[in-house]
Design a protein that fits this description.
alpha+beta, Nucleoside Triphosphate Pyrophosphohydrolase, Arc Repressor Mutant, subunit A, 2 domains, two-stranded antiparallel sheet, 5 helices, 27% helix
Length: 220
C-alpha cells in the first residue's frame, strides 16, 4: 500500500484600491527555486489540514487569523519532482488594504500580485489557481462575502467595480443598476458622498437581515 505525503496550499485573494489581488511567495529552495508559488507546505506531526494551512501562511506571508474555505484536493502525478503528493487546497477573500506581506521561512519574499496578471506558478499550481477563482466566484454568487470588502456605506460604482474585478468582466452600468434595484438587501442610506463638489453619488448599504429574506434572488 502506498502512503503519500500531504501538502496544504492556500490561495488568499485580497481586494485593495479597486483591484483583486492574490498573495504569492517567491521560493527560496529547490524544487522551483526562484519561481512564484501559492503559499503552502507539508503537513507535520498531528496537524489537521487547517492547522497546516494556518502555520504555513503565517510562516511564508505573515498572514494570520483568516477564515479559510477548503475547495479541492489535488492528487495528479508529476506536480512535485520529489515524488507524488496529495494536496488539500483552501482559499480566502480578505480586504488586503492593511495586510502587508512578509516572508520568514522557505521564501525569499511574499507579495500581493494583481489576480489576473500573475507569473507562471511552481508545482503546476496554475490549475489550482483556476479552480480557486471558480470557487471564489461560486461563493460570491451564493453568499454575501463580497460586501465584507466594501465600506459600510458604498456607492453603486464601487459595488460594480468590485464585481467586475471578482468576475474579470465589464458590466453594463444600466443593467447592473437594474439588478441592484430588484434585490431588497442593497438599500439606499439617503446620504451622498462627502467632500465632492460635483454630483456626489448616493450611498448604499448592505442589510444582512434583508439578505436572509431575499437571498434566493440571484443578484449576479
Amino acid at each position: 500500500m502506498n502512503h503519500y505525503p500531504v501538502t496544504v496550499d492556500s490561495v488568499i485573494f485580497g481586494y485593495s484600491k479597486g483591484e483583486l489581488m492574490v498573495a504569492l511567495i517567491e521560493r527560496e529552495r529547490d524544487p522551483f527555486k526562484g519561481m512564484w508559488a501559492i503559499p503552502g507546505g507539508f503537513m507535520e506531526g498531528e496537524e489537521t489540514a487547517e492547522e497546516t494551512a494556518r502555520r504555513e501562511l503565517q510562516e511564508e506571508t505573515g498572514l494570520a487569523d483568516i477564515f479559510l474555505e477548503q475547495f479541492h484536493v489535488f492528487s495528479s502525478h508529476g506536480r512535485d519532482p520529489r515524488g507524488r503528493t496529495i494536496t488539500v487546497a483552501f482559499f480566502a477573500l480578505i480586504n488586503s488594504d492593511s495586510k502587508e506581506l512578509f516572508a520568514t521561512e522557505d521564501a525569499w519574499q511574499a507579495k500581493w500580485w494583481p489576480a489576473y496578471k500573475i507569473p507562471p506558478l511552481a508545482f503546476g499550481q496554475d490549475e489550482m489557481y483556476s479552480c480557486a477563482l471558480k470557487a471564489l466566484r461560486n461563493h460570491v454568487k451564493t453568499g454575501p462575502i463580497a460586501f465584507e470588502l466594501l465600506p459600510k456605506e458604498f456607492t453603486l460604482t464601487e459595488l460594480q467595480k468590485l464585481y467586475e474585478q471578482l468576475f474579470n468582466i465589464e458590466i453594463d452600468t444600466r443593467n447592473f443598476r437594474r439588478k441592484v434595484a430588484k434585490v431588497g438587501y442593497i438599500v439606499p442610506t439617503g446620504k451622498k458622498q462627502a467632500g465632492l463638489k460635483h454630483r456626489p453619488a448616493l450611498l448604499y448599504s448592505f442589510d444582512p437581515k434583508l439578505y436572509d429574506e431575499f437571498s434566493k434572488e440571484s443578484f449576479f
